[in-house]
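Running log. JK asked me to keep both predictions on one page so they can be read side by side. First protein, sequence followed by its tokens:
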Amino acid sequence: DLTRTGLFRLIDAAGKSPHDASKVNYADWQSRGAEALAIGNVTVAAKRIDAKFQLLDAVKQTVLVAQVVSSTDRQLRAIGHRVADLIYEKLTGDKGVFSTRIAYVNRQGKKFRLVVADSDGQNEQVLLTQNAPIISPAWSPDGSSLSYVSFETGHAVVYVQSLHNSQRKVLADFRGSNSAPAWSPQGDQLAIVLSRDGSSQIYFVSPEGKDLRRVTSGGGIDTEPNFSPDGQWLLFTSDRGGNPQVYRMPANGGAAQRITYGDGNNYSPRYSPDGKGFVFAHQVKGKFYIATQDFQTGQMEILTEGGWEKKPSFSPNGKLIMYASEAGGRGILATVSSDGRVKQKMSTTSGDAREPIWGPQLQGNAD
């Protein structure tokens, strides 16, 4: 977990394994270049695992964190992620996101699977398997449900499915296309894209599929809505100016303002967790790049080398961006740090991984 962030350099313990702060020879660790040291032990009972750990400042020779992380259902990975979160937060000042989950679509041959996994791509759980495409998964703010678009009936229909019991319901099945669901931060409504009245436009609907109302009225295609963290604004993609660009408008209605300019097309905008900027897919000269833009300065920053790079989403702490990419001819998931310095490919099972979305920050099973 810590290595994947690019912020930590791990030092070989070389056979030394103290389990208590009283057994630590600080001078020895300092000579190896260690600034911090994580030690501890794990005890296993019939249905419970306790991981007692301490994070030590090797320079000041003090205890930074001393905590027991437990899991009643023997979830070792959850314990490991939680310990990594605590270490990350203490040493960087930012919340860790190792205990969060991601969702994506995996395609193998004619089979499409909607998958939920740990933030590192491990511990996969399949929510839905079918022979028709699945696209645009979106997490509810409380992490209990996913909305997505399925083509199982022959056209695009929006569903909401519970992660707890896998029960699902139709959210939107109107004439034409139903697509691009996005939850409001309060979870009281979703933005969806419908073509029932002609061109694709953005509508709001309750999680029960009621209280439908139209939000945009541009002449072109308006799609890929995304709420600001405070729920006051909507970002979306529109070709109303001739080619796909990112626009912003008040969520309670009003004029839309174009906010991406310059060469190329821009797609799939998503707010940063602090609301100060957004990430999007930037297409120019046949290549797709992951880029960010600051609202105040309007400056665009390209973070990746370019290729087939789409559907970016921020981690809940805003430090990482996950996106769909390609390697060796198959779809993979990748991450890049928000400053563009650290790039990682994520491991997933065989097949094509597409349509990734990072889940919300929740308290996991390990406490």
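And the second, directly underneath as requested:
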Amino acid sequence: MQGQRVVIPTPNAVTLEAFDVQEPGEDQVVVKARTTLISPGTERAFFTAAPNTNATYPLYPGYSFVGDVVAVG
């Protein structure tokens, strides 16, 4: 199965990339997102190199979404 995700490969660059979704391991699930968001506060802190961040690249932002479980490990 293929998925898509937002990636920040380098400072000041954002792109969408395809990736292979792995089978879930024990105690894991795969969730197909219905809708998602990227927190403007957290990611802005990385873009502006705020002192409380230590961004390493590539950065895969986003951690809030709603979806359907499509596989269970």
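Observation for JK regarding the second prediction: Helices lie at 40-47.
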